[in-house]
Amino acid sequence: MSSQPAHPTLLIPGPIEFDDAVLQSMSHYSESHVGPAFVATFGETLTQLRQLFQSTDASAQPYIISGSGTLGWDLVAANLVEAGESALVLSTGYFGDAFADCLTTYGADVTKLDGPVGGRPQLPEIEKALSQKKYKILTVTHVDTSTGVLSELKDLTATVKRVSPETLVIVDGVCSVACEEIAFDEWGLDGVVTASQKAIGCPAGLSISFFSGRAMQAFEKRKTPPASYFASMKNWTPIMKNYEAKKPSYFATPSPQLVHALNTALKQILAKPLSERFARHAEVSDKVKKAVQDLGLEVVATKPEDQAHAMTAIYLPENVKIPDILPKLAGKGVVFAGGIHKAIATKYIRFGHMGVSVTDPKRKDIDHALEALKSGLSECGYQKA
């Protein structure tokens, strides 16, 4: 049984439920962030990230920096693109649009390709855009939590390499790392940015990213200094290299407690083959999608191949409103999220199913949530046609 106080089950697209051992790691006594014990833990955690991203490339560089997933966008925008250089942003919702806004803030010349609501830009239009203009980077949101749309990466990256080989492929993996397949080296990715609080299953507060040797070379060839101080790879890279080599180093103070929690979470994830973890998330996703369909409801992500495996965005029946259904669910001990995509925000809710809620066989979170959804809709007056 969990040692955590009784609480509603958090099934939003992140933060997610935590394993007891991860939470207990947070209660580590205070220690120096440059002391040998913490430096060893931080160094080990950076090396674990290489395994999580399925990379053996010694020239690739992991980063763990205090901040939210949004800081990952700043790392990309401040370091890999200079003012006036072009970026092609593939958007499948709110977070793709926001990544474009971040790049624009730093002076990038941004072109955005939008997928239809519930869909994604297709390879022919991406290829056409790449052939018409030289882009320094292409960014793609692997899972946009505003729509639950999953973007394909393997064929996308192969297309970019063929049409515009100098373009860096950067992935927003905030809601995909540790639940969706990411073969960093095999697919030829140049960067993935993520965060601690989603499928990795650690409390919020850490920006986690991984960049290829090619991306690091592109950074080193900048003609102008990085456009940020805190998000500067110039400032952070030597720190990360020293920590991984178990040498104390300092630029800005990390959170030892969060790093301990991340270390524990990664040890749990890496204790079994990653393929099993991805398969389990897909299995539960199929179960959720079928249950939604059986209720006579529609998933926002329209095509099965475009549907994320760690969350589901669900259109509500016309007579059921978000302010009605979410309190009903909360009363049954289940917390879902409302919609945030501006085109459909009032029409749908979001169900996060990732991390320990799906991988721990002792937890019945998903079954409980599906039953709560069924009865909650009924109490709101919905009957399947």
Automatic annotation (TrEMBL):
It is an enzyme of class 2 (transferase). Keywords: Aminotransferase, Pyridoxal phosphate, Transferase. Belongs to the class-V pyridoxal-phosphate-dependent aminotransferase family. PANTHER family: ALANINE--GLYOXYLATE AMINOTRANSFERASE 1 (PTHR21152:SF24), AMINOTRANSFERASE CLASS V (PTHR21152). InterPro entries: Aminotrans_V_dom, PyrdxlP-dep_Trfase, PyrdxlP-dep_Trfase_major, PyrdxlP-dep_Trfase_small, SP_NH2Trfase/AEP_transaminase. Pfam families: Aminotran_5 (PF00266). The modification N6-(pyridoxal phosphate)lysine is found at residue 198. GO terms for molecular function: alanine-glyoxylate transaminase activity; L-serine-pyruvate transaminase activity. Its cofactor is pyridoxal 5'-phosphate. Residues 22-346 form the Aminotransferase class V domain. This is alanine--glyoxylate transaminase. It comes from Emericellopsis atlantica. Substrate binds at residue 350. Its EC number is 2.6.1.44. GO terms for biological process: glycine biosynthetic process, by transamination of glyoxylate. GO terms for cellular component: peroxisome.
